Amino acid sequence: MAKVTLKEIAHSYTGYSDNPDDYALKKLDLVWRDGGAYALLGPSGCGKTTLLNIISGLLIPTKGQVLFNDQDVTRLPTEQRNIAQIFQFPVIYDTMTVFDNLAFPLKNRGRTRVEIEPRVIELAKMLGLEGDLHTKAQHLTADAKQKISLGRGLIRKSVNAILFDEPLTVIDPQLKWQLRSQLKYLHKQFGFTMIYVTHDQTEALTFADEVIVMYEGAIVQIGTPEALFERPEHTFVGYFIGSPGMNIVPCRIAGNRALIDDHAIALRNSYTAIPAGAKVEIGIRPEYLRLLPPGGEGVPVDIKKVDDIGRYKIVRVGLNSRDFNVVVPELSGMTGDKAGLVFDMHHTNIYVNDHLFAGESQ
């Protein structure tokens, strides 16, 4: 297990350049502690796989250094980095038994049968594979094969880090939660340094202690799942995390009020230092909006659509040309297509040029 340090890493697939726009991965610095569980989260093309390939040694970065426990491994090939990798599709030997597949990384490193067998049995039990140890992998389901891949990555106790590249892509959605729970449990049991790449926010937020959100080749926020949900530092994080994502609409600021058209929204802070000409937006999660009968408290809105999700409803409301999603348990007391929209000032954020703006406490 190792502390992983990335120092001034940047990568361009066209070679060295002085133009930042030429870089698929913008300059970044990261330190991941020994034994931590981390997720790289973002849409396709955001740079997360490029970053994972740099850590693994499949790519040498155009700029910067990769350190394992303060040792420079930037130019070391993958096989000399002492890492394990688990990919989207199972990497196993179909003609081998489950036991032999799990044992292979240890056999390949000269371990004896006495060392191998207890470890294989221990891990097979944790992954729910103990009943299939003498079955050839070709006879197993896709999710069982991916469990074997996970086991092969976890079988060695001395790896510097385990890298996961969208490992649950081929798994049936109903079984994904089981494997996520097992991964979390295995991390707690063995304390590996784990780095998990995904575009799925549920996977990232349930697996990781800390999530690195990437957008257009850059890191836009690093934080706990709670911090990413409660205080997105960039509008992209607000949109991308949450279902539905954060409501973010243009506004004007007048002291401690946000103005959407001519409707005033009370804020917990004053905002007097916003640069002239800046793009200003108000952001609030659908969970922190309330709907009341019209004619009383709240901004007057039109109810445009109601989606019944079962445990709650997602209500789309319109404020002139601006739309908001509101999550409510039910629409009791509401009649017709009019309502009052109430903002929770303690969960209302102001964004200036896409970045969270702190304001001044009142």
Number of DSSP E strands? 24
Write the CATH homologous superfamily of the largest domain: P-loop containing nucleotide triphosphate hydrolases
- Overall morphology: globular
Low-confidence stretches: none
- Tell me the fraction of residues in β-strands, as a range: 25-35%
Mean pLDDT: 92
Question: Architecture of the largest domain in CATH?
Answer: 3-Layer(aba) Sandwich
- Biggest β-sheet: count, sense, barrel? 6 strands, mixed
User: Can you list the strand order of the major beta sheet?
Assistant: 6-7-8-3-9-10
**Range of helix content:** 10-25%
Roughly how many Å is the radius of gyration? 25 Å
Instruction: Count up the helices.
Output: 8
Number of domains: 2
CATH third-level topology of the largest domain: Rossmann fold
Structural class: alpha+beta
Per CATH, the class of the largest domain reads Alpha Beta
State the distance separating the first and last CA atoms. 47 Å
